[in-house]
Amino acid sequence: MANRSQRRSREKGLVERPKYSKAQRVIDQAEKQSSKQVTFSDVAKMMRNTKELVGILQMSWDSISQEFGISPEQIPAVIEYNNLHRDPPVETVKAEEISAEELPADSPEEVAVDEYDDLNGLNKLTLEEISAFFGENSLIQGVDLSVTIDNVRAVVSSYYNLSKAYADFETLEKELQTSMAEQEEAALTALKERAASELDLEKRAKAQLSLDKFYYNKHLGFLRDVTPKTLRHLTKAFTDQGRINYLLERGRIYMERLRIPEKFILEISSFEKRFLEEKYHAQNNMLLLYFLSGLVYSDLNDQTYRQQLIAFTLTMDRYIRRLSNEEESTAVLDNIQAFQDHFFIPQGEQFVSRFTILP
After folding, report:
1. Where are the domains of the chain?
2. What is the DSSP letter of 143?
3. In 3D, which of 219, 288, 211 has the Cα closest to residue 255?
């Protein structure tokens, strides 16, 4: 339930709207960083701040939606009503448009006007319309129409602010990834040029080896080269629901330790059905099983595995959200399909997934 001050604000017709000053500071900081090197600590700080804001707004929405028994699916229609009935904002009045008698001596160039109420269309709601949106017996109904409208405004405001915060978070995330990708490409180009101009053959070979290793990890080449032992383990686990549940449970624990967002599981779940040809659908979630199995059974202190784990999470996230360029996407998809092909066996003149012919 809302606290007393929140209820008093609504009774007075005051809608408490979460401010976006923190979000704007984060976005402004990202824009400033676009002209200079963005370090991983910069990225982590900005993402933490934005995530904290989203968390606060999520709690606000959870609280008010529970108080009035509102679901998110009910709000878009109310927002559409507001957009259709909203009065437009009043243009800013220029100082020169006002006579000298009306203008104070210390007046600024622009005369301040009341802050625009972008939810003013909701003020035109009737009780019948509110009942149509939320139900006749909805808890959003107040003692009179004025209080009820204030409740509707508070709910819509909370929903809108949360939606905008999520959108800002995604925009910031994409901008940061784009900026980092550009810096990464610039650094790689410089390394290639230095390698090409290196007269010492041994140093040139080492530089080229470093480049090859970088792209091998970034394009998930290790999926193509998965070991027979890992393949046997995955084949066994794929049809064992108890083992799958164990890997999910333990995998989440390791993800939390490594600060890998749990939503990553959702990102790569059903990857085969979402992104690959139908012939791979019988082994849907094999890629997810590979990821979880690696977390649970691999040595997390092993530098090679940690590099591959980082590459896997970053590259898969970029691929799924379509942030990779065409060359990178093609290379990644090729290696994923090569990984999936390890589970194909001959049947007549064709190769098919071993999981399509299980008894």
Report:
1. 4-86+123-180, 209-356
2. S
3. 288
Q: From CA 225, how far away is CA 134, in angstroms rounded?
A: 56
- Residues written for the chain: 359
pLDDT by residue for the chain (359 residues), tens only, comes to 444 444 444 443 333 444 444 444 444 554 444 444 545 456 556 667 777 878 888 898 999 999 999 999 999 999 999 999 999 887 654 545 545 455 455 555 544 455 788 899 999 999 999 999 999 889 999 999 999 999 999 999 999 888 888 887 777 666 666 666 667 777 777 777 777 777 777 877 877 887 888 889 989 999 999 999 999 999 999 989 999 999 999 999 988 888 888 888 988 999 999 999 999 999 999 999 999 999 999 888 888 888 899 889 989 988 998 888 898 999 999 999 999 999 988 766 677 787 876 54
| Helices 286-297 + 228-238 axis angle, to 10 | 120
CA distances from 27 to 55, 67, 170 (A): 17, 32, 11
Tokens read off for 44? 């982590």
